[in-house]
Every structure is written in C-alpha cells, then in structure tokens.
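note to self — DONT lose this again. spent like an hour looking for the file last time. sequence + predicted structure for the chain T wanted, 167 res
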Amino acid sequence: MASIGSVPALATETLRPHTYAFDQPALVSAQRVFGVGHATVMLGEACSAFPEAAVGYQIWLEKNAVTLQGLTETLAAHYRIDPNAPNLRTQVAAAMHLKTTLNLSESQLEEACPTLPQALSSAHYDLEQRYRETLKEVRQPDYLNPKRKVTTSPQPDLVPEENPHHE
C-alpha cells in the first residue's frame, strides 16, 4: 500500500474525532477500505466453525494481512491511537464508529458462512486493489457531487390513460 504519511501518536494527545478526510484522498481511501477489511475479519472469525469458510478466510487473510495492517497503522496514527496498543484494529474501528463485534445468530451464520469463500475470492475483497481503485475514485474532482441518474426513456404516466372502449 502506498504510504500516506503519518501523524505522530503521542500519549499526551487526545483521540482525534472521526470524520472522513475528504481533503486527503489517500486517507479517505484508507478509511473506506479499512471498513471493508475490518468487517471481513469479523465475519471470517465468526465463521470459524464452518470448515470451508475458515479455509477461505485464511487464504484471504494471508493475501490481505499486510495491507490491512498498513491501513490500521495509518489510521491509528491519524486518530492518535498508540500504535502498540492491544487490539489496534478494534480500537481504530471504534474510533471510526464501526462495529467492533458481530452478534450473529446461528441461522445468520448458516446463511452467511457457506458463501464466504466465494465472496472472498472476488476482486471486491482484494484490499490492495480496492485501495488503488478507491484512491483513483476519491481523487476525481467531482467525487463529492451527488451522482445524477440520467433517464434515457420517457417516464410512464402516473395516471393510467382512460380507455374509450371501456365503460
């Protein structure tokens, strides 16, 4: 992952409140991708009792661990969290107001976990690739402008036409 600079984490500083750093494309990209990585770790850990999901998660983690650690350290510095703090990823997630635990029922796990290996093998969950794509997206000058939907076909009438042959 590209280095995005760091903010010194001093014990005397208070935590920085969470906001998305739209004026810093690399940092807002890190924030967005970290959320995906953090959620993936929580679900992967929750699916540990499902053998295929556990294997798929381990493969994903081996591929993405370095990127996720880099994102975590970058964001810890930004939020002024001690980089040596225990459970650093969870502390960063808490600073970002993300969930820090998943409380899924057995039926929810039975629904989600069997599909996890296939999902994690998609490019969507490649954190390094996602970071690059997100960084490209947030560097666009109109990134914060609302996306307008362009209608290419006429809108249907809201009131049905009267049928002259029907009484």
